[in-house]
Automatic annotation (TrEMBL):
Pfam families: Inositol_P (PF00459). This is Inositol-1-monophosphatase. Its cofactor is Mg(2+). It comes from the Bacteria. InterPro entries: Inositol_monophosphatase-like, Inositol_monophosphatase_CS. Mg(2+) binds at E80, D98, I100, D101, D219. Its EC number is 3.1.3.25. Belongs to the inositol monophosphatase superfamily.
Length: 275
């Protein structure tokens, strides 16, 4: 984005302050959610019965609202668990929130869930945090900085291209890949939190992942920045980074990986779509 090239020291200072704010808020919301973990919280169903939401999601969301909206009243707000009134569209800067990314895993007693918070300015994240309290892991990044996990820098995998890469990719997607690419891809077990899965790419646990259509801003924005600052990219099938805070907050198919592996994914998916 052109405005990123024009950012000032003052911008950087603001975003670093925002990063400290959202990291603290994520920890507090994570502690709230952890109080419901493995305790059978009340559950409701949304999206015509396709998606669960629990008392833990709402409690964590309430904690985040109480902290962040008070601290930055001029910022817009988009959260999976807050009704969207459209006011965010008039704001250059906003918070994009998922109080529990991986609610199904949370309810099943699995540890792979996280609190996701991003500060987004003019369509792209400038500060982002993922906090996985059951794993005691905090991922964070700010525009112009390096990605961190529990305070230590992380980078994407440097697995040689002639060695199989480890990918979180659905079997039906991989089956349609050309044979020349299949031998370079080793599937890993399903990771229920999309945000955490992208963070796994950022810290080199896996080489890449494919994101099916209908992910949302709150699933992606924080993890997107963390991956970018770790040396990877999240892109659509045309190689373009997603934009956030649009009228439509859902996205089409996406890929996340380091650049050489990203080329493999885009080629394979492109050939699948053309076949």
């Amino acid at each position: 984005m052109d405005w990123i090239a024009e950012m000032t020291d003052e911008d950087t200072a603001v975003w670093r302050s925002d990063l400290g704010l959202i990291a603290d808020a994520a920890r507090q919301a994570g502690d709230v959610a952890l109080g419901y973990f493995n305790r059978s919280p009340e559950v409701w169903w949304k999206n015509e019965g396709r998606s669960p939401v629990s008392a833990a999601d709402f409690a964590a969301n309430q904690k985040l609202e109480s902290i962040l909206r008070a601290a930055r009243p001029d910022y817009g707000w988009l959260s999976e668990e807050t009704d969207d009134d459209g006011d965010r569209l008039s704001r250059e800067t906003l918070f994009i929130i998922d109080p529990i990314d991986g609610t199904r895993a949370f309810l099943a007693g699995q540890e792979l869930w996280c609190v996701s918070i991003a500060v987004v300015r003019r369509g792209r994240p400038v500060a982002g945090v993922l906090y996985a309290p059951a794993l005691e892991e905090l991922y964070e990044a700010v525009e112009g900085g390096v990605a961190l996990k529990n305070g230590r820098p992380i980078t994407v995998s440097t697995t040689p291209l002639d060695a199989p890469g480890r990918f979180a990719i659905a079997e039906d997607v991989l089956k349609a890949f050309p044979e020349a690419l299949k031998h370079r891809i080793e599937r890993v077990r399903h990771v229920p939190s999309l945000a955490y899965r992208i963070a796994m790419v950022a810290d080199g646990q896996i080489d890449g992942t494919f994101v099916k259509h209908n992910s949302h801003d709150w699933d992606l924005a924080a993890a997107d920045l963390i991956l970018e600052r770790a040396g990877g990219r999240l892109v659509d099938l045309h190689g373009e980074a997603p934009l956030y805070n649009r009228i439509q907050v859902s996205h089409g198919e996406l890929c996340a990986a380091a650049a050489p592996r990203l080329a493999d994914l885009l080629t394979g998916i492109g050939e699948r779509r053309d076949s």
